[in-house]
Design brief:
With about 450 residues, this protein is α+β, with helices and mostly antiparallel strands. The chain contains 14 helices and 12 strands. It has a 5-stranded mixed sheet with strand order 5-6-1-7-8. Strand 2 and strand 3 form a beta hairpin. It comes from Crenothrix polyspora.
Length: about 450
């Protein structure tokens, strides 16, 4: 099952993996430049200011779950004066980069797992006193960036995740937990539900419950072969990881995405094909940029359109369509033309569309595909692939963001997602830098 001894090559010692996770990251970024919000309930919203994507502890304590639509808890927002912010991704990405730069100083190998999480290999580095080393990491990140973090340490990535869960849940830990000791692991596992394990989703947790497996300890006590036969190899590997046997290596270089999706909700209902086509073209352009950034091509394009499930009084309609391409591509023009053909096939008059999106599949490295025939044409007599043109477009947009677009222009763009509660881009825009006035 791909597991075994993965000890640090420079020191034959028991492995020590550390997970550093920023606390309520988006909210922490917003509070960083607003000290007046330090003790106030704060939430960050998704695109179109629709749903909660980050909440401080006070908001969580009110029972507001991740992903809940704002309109469903508007009474709580008003009653408790919850301060809401639109997602400010340039700010979050910049602060994330700063956090990761600090973490690089504490370990020879670092895997950035997400915008606010990173695994560190501390084997041979912090094993003399793991908790003291974790506290040192925590203090250094906060001092350099102002972002609070929790630290979990253990012999495997899955156990490090569990340790981090404990560090966040129980304040008496001081935000640092080490599960290197098997007896301490056992004590924690017996009080934590199996659904909290990294990699165990709600459906898998339900299946495990049917088998009489309710706590993490119940799962760790299972023979891995049994879990392989009754569930799948991933659960079997989790069992081994929970027993201190490493099965998941650190990925210092992030793997290419095997699926790219770009979708958004609209600020108003779209009823005309032209508006929906323009929105789809913009999403195709963004997705194509991501595809080229990892130097890949896509062999399958699918799209979807749908009305709002939160407005059952309105006529409901949703449909998706996809197509395999004759030649894999990364050309924005080809992708938009293909998406428009698909859209014409599924669009229906008489509906107020709330959301649409595009998805790429069968993604492969661009290097394994030869240049397409120059006489292979798609809509409007454009060639099926022009990588030099795409490279020039990307270079221009990197230097002058959003300066050039292949997507349709000139139409009413009031459909674009709202971001009415956006904070300044304090660290990424000269016009919005923080100003300090001294008397």
């Amino acid at each position: 099952m791909g597991c075994g001894d993965q000890r640090h090559p420079s020191a034959m010692m028991p492995p020590l993996i550390c997970l550093v996770d920023c606390n309520n990251f988006y909210v922490s970024c917003e509070k960083l430049f607003r000290p007046d919000l330090a003790d106030k309930p704060v939430g960050v919203l998704s695109s179109n200011d629709g749903c909660f994507v980050s909440r401080c502890q006070r908001v969580k304590d009110l029972g507001i779950k991740m992903g809940v639509p704002v309109f469903q808890v508007q009474h709580l927002v008003k009653q408790h004066d919850i301060q809401l912010f639109s997602s400010n991704f340039p700010l979050y990405a910049d602060l994330s980069a700063r956090v990761m730069a600090i973490l690089e100083e504490f370990a020879p190998r670092v895997e950035q797992y997400s915008i606010d999480e990173a695994f560190l290999d501390l084997t041979g580095v912090g094993q003399d006193d793991p908790v003291a080393y974790g506290i040192k990491i925590k203090k250094a990140v906060f001092q350099a960036t102002g972002i609070p973090v929790c630290v979990g340490m253990a012999p495997t990535k899955t156990l490090a995740k569990l340790a981090n869960f404990a560090a966040k849940k129980w304040k008496q830990t001081g935000g640092v937990v080490d599960l290197s000791d098997p007896s301490r692991r056992e004590k924690l596992m017996k009080i934590v539900l199996v659904g909290e394990v990294w990699g165990i989703g709600s459906r898998t947790a339900a299946k495990l419950n049917q088998l009489g497996i309710h706590t993490v300890w119940d799962l760790a006590s299972q023979p891995s072969r049994r879990m392989h036969s009754q569930l799948n190899v991933l659960v079997a590997r989790i069992v081994l990881e929970l027993n201190g046997i490493p099965c998941l290596e650190l990925e210092e270089i992030a793997p290419d995405k095997q699926q790219i999706i770009c979708s958004r909700s609209f600020s108003r209902r779209l009823t005309h094909y032209r508006e929906l086509s323009e929105a789809m073209a913009e999403f195709c352009s963004r997705a194509a940029e991501k595809l080229r950034k990892q130097n890949s091509v896509t062999g399958h394009i699918s799209i979807f359109i749908r009305t709002s499930p939160f407005s059952p009084q309105e006529p409901q309609y949703q449909l998706a369509a996809g197509v395999m391409l004759k030649s894999a591509t990364q050309d924005t023009r080809v992708i938009i033309a293909t998406a428009n053909r698909l859209l014409r096939g599924i669009f229906k008059e008489g509906y107020g569309y709330h959301k649409c999106g595009v998805q790429f599949g069968h993604i492969q490295p661009a290097s394994i595909f030869a240049q397409s025939d120059l006489f292979d044409l798609v809509d409007n007599n454009i060639t099926a692939e022009n990588r030099p043109l795409m490279e020039v477009l990307d270079r221009i947009n990197r230097r002058f963001p959003k300066a050039v677009s292949i997507a349709a222009t000139g139409f009413d763009k009031s459909w674009k997602p709202r971001a009415e509660k956006m904070s300044p881009r304090y660290t990424t825009d000269w016009q919005e830098l923080v100003c300090v006035h001294c008397d």
